[in-house]
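$ fold --in a.seq
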Amino acid sequence: MNNRHVALIGAFYDALGRADFAAMERCYHPEISFCDPIFPEVEGRDRVMRMWRLQLGVRDGLTSRCRDVAADDHSGSAHCSSRYTFSRTGRAVVAEIDAQFRFQDDLIVRHRDEFDFKRWSKMALGRPQGPVFGWTPTLRKTIRDRAAQRLEEFQPS
C-alpha cells in the first residue's frame, strides 16, 4: 500500500466533487491519458482538463462518493458512485464507476474509468433511446462521436 497514492486518488475525487479544476489538474501528470466508454482516449493534461470542464458542464449537481481506494507504487484503483442530472435531458443519473490509475512522479499518468454504458444510457437518455438502443454499437459510436466533436469545439471560459 502506498499511502501517498491513496491520498492522491482521494484528493482528485474531492476536487472533482467541488469542480475545483486547479486542484484536479495538480493531481495529473503532464502526460496524462484518460479514457472511459464515452471518451475512449484523451491525451495530455490540457486536453484532459478541457474534457473535465466539458463533462462537468453537462452534469448538474454532481456528487461523488468513492470507496475501496487502493494503491501501490505503480497503480491504483477506486470505486465511485456519481450522482448528477444529465443537463441535455434533465434526467437523473447514478453512475457506478470502477477507476484504474497508473502513477509516474507521484502523479496520475493514466486514468481509466469503466461503467455500464447500457445502464448509463437508460438513465441519461431515457426512453426510447436508452432502453432500446443503449446496448448497440451504433448508439455508442454516435455518443462517442458527438462527445469528441464537442470536445474539439469546446472553449472553456
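$ fold --in b.seq
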Amino acid sequence: MNSSLVNWPAVLVAALSAFAIGGVWYNPKVFGTAWMVDSKLSQEEIQKSNMAKTFGFTALFAVISSANLAAFLADPKTDLARGATAGFLAGIWTFGAIATHSLFEMKSWRHIFINGLYSMVSLTIMGAILGAWR
C-alpha cells in the first residue's frame, strides 16, 4: 500500500455516502418498517435511544471502513471499476459476517438480507467513489 495514494477527502465523502444510502435504505417506505419489525423495535424505542451516540459511532465506523477500503485501493491502477469491485467484494465479506451473527441471534432471513445487502450496496458505492476520485 502506498499511503500517499489515499485521497482523504474521498475517504470522507465515501463515508458520508453510507449515511445517504442508509437514510434511503432504512426509510420506512423502503426497508425501514420491515427492519423495525424484524429487529423487534418500535418507533418509540428508537426515538428514546441515544441518537448522538448511534450516529457518532456510525460515522466513526463509516470512516474506518472507508479508510480501510482506500488502503486496499491505494494503487495507481485503481479506477472506478476496480474501486466498485473491491467495495462489492468487501460487501460480500460483510454480508457473511452479518449473516453469521444474525443466525445465532435467530434473526429472520429478511432481516439478514436487509442489513447484508445494505452493506454490499454502501461498500460498492464507497469503492466506486474512492476509485473514481483519484
